[in-house]
Amino acid sequence: MEVIGTYAFAGSKNLTEITFQGGTELEKQAFYGCDNLEKAYLPESVVKIGDEAFGDCQYLTMYVRENSAALQYARSENIPFELY
């Protein structure tokens, strides 16, 4: 299980797209304020997403699987998403 820690990439300006593979947990505010982040691909293996993990990522669209933790997170945080 890979854990992306609290504030691990917060404020990163160079991130535009991220893809997760394998079992992953995202702790709170892991990608908070990544202004240029536009796409995040989150498979079913992303099992936990902490509070505001993608907070203040204003251009983000999450690509998620049906019935996944990522889909639930996107809906609860009002983040645009597409099923893939």
Can you offer a commentary on this structure?
This protein is mainly β. It has one domain (2-83). 11% of the residues lie in helices and 29% in strands. The protein is built from one helix and seven strands, in the order ββββββαβ. The strands form two sheets. It has a four-stranded parallel beta sheet, with helices on one face. Strands 1-3-5 form a three-stranded parallel beta sheet. The longest helix is centred in the C-terminal third of the chain and has 9 residues, at 69-77. The mean pLDDT is 96.
List the defining traits of the structure above.
84 residues; four-stranded parallel beta sheet; three-stranded parallel beta sheet; 7 strands
| Overall domain count | 1
Mean pLDDT: 96
The poorly predicted ranges are none
SSE-based structural type: mainly beta
**SSE sequence, one letter per element:** EEEEEEHE
Helix content: 10-25%
**What is the oligomer described by this structure?**
single chain
Rg computed from alpha carbons, rounded to a whole number of angstroms: 11 Å
- Count of helical regions: 1
Globally, the shape reads globular
Largest sheet composition = 4 strands, parallel
Total E-strand runs: 7
Tell me the fraction of residues in β-strands, as a range: 25-35%
**Order of the strands making up the biggest sheet:** 2-4-6-7
- Head-to-tail CA distance between termini: 23 Å
